[in-house]
Amino acid sequence: MNAIVVHYKELALKGNNRPWFIRHLVRNLRAALGGLDVRSVRHAMGRIEIELRPGAEPQEAGDRIARVFGIANYSYAGRAPRDPGGMAAAILADLGDRRPASFRVSARRADKSFPLTSPQIERHVGGLIKQATGWRVDLAGPELEVFVELMMDHAFYYFGKAPGAGGLPTGTGGRVACLLSGGFDSPVAAYRMMRRGCRVLLIHFHSYPILSRASQEKVREIAALLTRSQLRSRLVLVPFGELQQQVVLLAPPPLRVVLYRRLMLRIAEKLARAWRARALVTGEVVGQVASQTLENLTAIAQASGLEILRPLVGLDKDEIIAEARRIGTHSISIVPDQDCCQLFTPRHPATRVSLERIEAAERALPIEAMVEAAVEGAAVEELEFPMIKYAPGGSHGGSGIEH
């Protein structure tokens, strides 16, 4: 088989904006397939055709396509002439060791001017296959379903469909910034926003050199995996340990967790605005930990002037872990590390903090100076797929975060 046929679903509902979404999807597919022996990627009559050269590895191409957002399903396909005899001959030549007890042919015409209707194509091609193989036709529950799609100058055939990642093409949903830890929640939250077409800036807060670099290395692995879907990512590593020490010295212990989170949001907002992001994303879930009561979530969110998006807010831990397994981050997140969220955490954090109480505690802290110091000390790394690479950009001031 020398082609892959990609079908989309949600994009077809976009009306006059559909061509814009499809252009993004075609561009993303070309980027994802970079370095493979692909002849062309082009949109043709409601589907996308990927033509492979003889030296291409279809399985590797399929593995990459499966991660590209905006795709409903894809199929390894062969090309055939448009006449039923030519279609049947090509299908028979490509069956390999398939020996099903029953089969059916399902046809679709992209070219409605073709003289045969879809049912007529199915009967003609199916009859020739049955004549050659003796297989039983079963329209209700066949062991093998042969798909045929009639285009303007050729036909496609394929023997099954693989599910795509769904969602919307990366780049169609605007920019957001996600506070990314090495745990289960925030990588899933970032993935969900990517799946809705958003390009996600990844911001990780660490406590090096007070703690080891383990959390940074872990987050790099998560960012690299997410980049297989987003194709290009920017990871910002923000030093946070010294800021936590200042909070410990000047603020009551029960308020520390909420104060840390408000500081993180302020820092993330400054980085996000420089990158022209329109919202912040967190992995917060109502009631999961002490800082995530409705009262605390409200007090934390009011530290930022940007919209706060919480894609996981109504899920439980089992649901989040199941999704982490599905997207591949679970095996990374489960590895123990030293996270800044565990540093200087009080034994009994406040679970229902009022905004007035938090703001009173913050008046003892040099908030603006703390935010500026964290932003100036942030390091930026660029990642790309298929050539995943780390390109350290140094501090925020010299790295060009705004690009």
| CATH fold assignment of the largest domain | Rossmann fold
Count of alpha and pi helical runs:
14
CATH class of the largest domain: Alpha Beta
Overall 3D geometry? elongated
In short:
38% of the residues lie in helices and 23% in strands. The chain has helices at residues 18-32, 58-65, 84-93, 118-133, 185-195, 214-230, 241-250, 256-274, 294-301, 317-327, 330-333, 355-362, 367-377, 396-399, and strands spanning 3-7, 38-44, 47-52, 71-80, 102-109, 136-137, 144-150, 155-158, 162-166, 175-179, 199-206, 232-239, 279-281, 307-309, 379-384, 391-395. Strand 5 (102-109), helix 4 and strand 6 form a beta-alpha-beta unit.
Secondary structure layout plus pairing:
Layout lengths: L2 E5 L10 H15 L5 E7 L2 E6 L5 H8 L5 E10 L3 H10 L8 E8 L8 H16 L2 E2 L6 E7 L4 E4 L3 E5 L8 E5 L5 H11 L3 E8 L7 H17 L1 E8 L1 H10 L5 H19 L4 E3 L12 H8 L5 E3 L7 H11 L2 H4 L21 H8 L4 H11 L1 E6 L6 E5 H4 L4
Descriptive notes:
- The chain is of the alpha/beta class and 403 residues long.
- The chain folds into two domains: 3-166, VC0802-like; 175-399, HUPs (Rossmann fold), CATH 3.40.50.
- 38% of the residues lie in helices and 23% in strands.
- It contains 14 helices and 16 strands.
- The chain has helices spanning 18-32, 58-65, 84-93, 118-133, 185-195, 214-230, 241-250, 256-274, 294-301, 317-327, 330-333, 355-362, 367-377, 396-399, and strands at residues 3-7, 38-44, 47-52, 71-80, 102-109, 136-137, 144-150, 155-158, 162-166, 175-179, 199-206, 232-239, 279-281, 307-309, 379-384, 391-395.
- The strands form two sheets. Strands 1, 2, 3, 4, 5, 6, 7, 8 and 9 form a nine-stranded mixed β-sheet that branches.
- Helix 5 links the parallel strand 10 and strand 11.
- The longest helix has 19 residues, at 256-274.
- The radius of gyration is 26 Å and the shape is elongated.
- The model is unreliable at 394-400 (pLDDT under 50).
